[in-house]
Structure formats: structure tokens, C-alpha cells
Amino acid sequence: MNIGVDVDGVLTRLVEFVRARTGLEKFEDYYGFVQSFVGNGSNKDFWAGSIWDYTKLPPIDGAVKNLKKLRQDGHKIIINTNRWFYEREDELGNKMREAVHKWFDKYEVPYDEFVFAKGDKAKVVKEYKLDIHIDDAPHEIQVVRPHIPVIVFDADYNKEFAGENIIRVKNWDEIYRVISSWG
User: Fold this and answer.
1) Full-prediction pTM beyond 0.70?
2) Which of 73, 84, 123, 157 lies at a CB distance of 3.0 to 4.6 Å from 33, suitable for a disulfide?
3) Of residues 64, 6, 16, the one with CA closest to residue 37
4) Going from the N-terminus, what domains does the chain have, and what CATH number goes with each?
């Protein structure tokens, strides 16, 4: 099975990081969540000042262990992300790409392909023939779910997603069980 995996909020501790930076405990919706840490500046301004601290956090519990198990079971892992700055062809873009790849190396996060979706995860779903995708961001879930099932990594800001092509999980052990049950 070809498995698409988002990075922020699925492999990384995005919510934990933002809570620590803002002091807020709950985020009702994704855009409120984003606005809570952006404040009066722009999203890119926030991340330009914070991303380097964020890239030092370890992966979400169980992510590496379960990705390794999925690969051992014969599944292909395709990282499918729209990470900030990754698309830029300048010093900041280069620095981000380097930081992300160093993070994957440092924590030995296994993958077969690494794709920056450039704002179009549905295109990656088709191009890489993904069978299932793991994500947390509402706008990404909405784009992918018409094409393939989405394992939704549970967060306050994505509670509205349920029904067809949606499988909600709370941790990586659940993700492994879901995918293993599909074969």
C-alpha cells in the first residue's frame, strides 16, 4: 500500500509547540488555531522567527516506531507536505529544506519518497498512486478525501470531519492497526 504522510501535526508536535508559545489549551478550528499563534503578524513572520525552535522537537510518540513497522510490512511511505518555506528558491527555502531533512535523519524517520505538494496534495495523491493519506489539517483533508481515505490525526481544529473516507485516530498505534487491518 502507498501511504501518504503529512509532516506538521502528524509527525511533528505542532499543537504542543503552539500551545507552549501561546499558552492556549484548546483551538476550536484550524484557522483560529493558526490565528492564535500568528497574532497581528503574518503566518510566515511567525514561522520565520519560530520554525528553527520547532524543528528541534522530537517526533510525536510512536510515529517512528510505527512507520518502521509499516515499511517492514511492505508498505511504501510517501511524505506529502506543504511545509512552510519549503517551496521557496532562496536562502530561507534552502535552510528549511536542510532543516527538515536533518530532522528526518536525526530522528531516523523512515520514508521512501519526500514530496513537497506545492499547495496541491490531491495532485500528489494521483501522481504517487496513494492508497491512503494521514493528515490533520482541515483544508488538506477536504482536498484529499474525495480521492482516497484519510486517516485524520485527531485535533481540536478538525473535529468536524467524519463519514465517508474519514478514519479518525488519536495516536500512531491506532494508525498502524487501521492500516494493518486493510492489508
Assistant:
1) yes
2) 157
3) 16
4) 2-13+59-182 (3.40.50.1000)
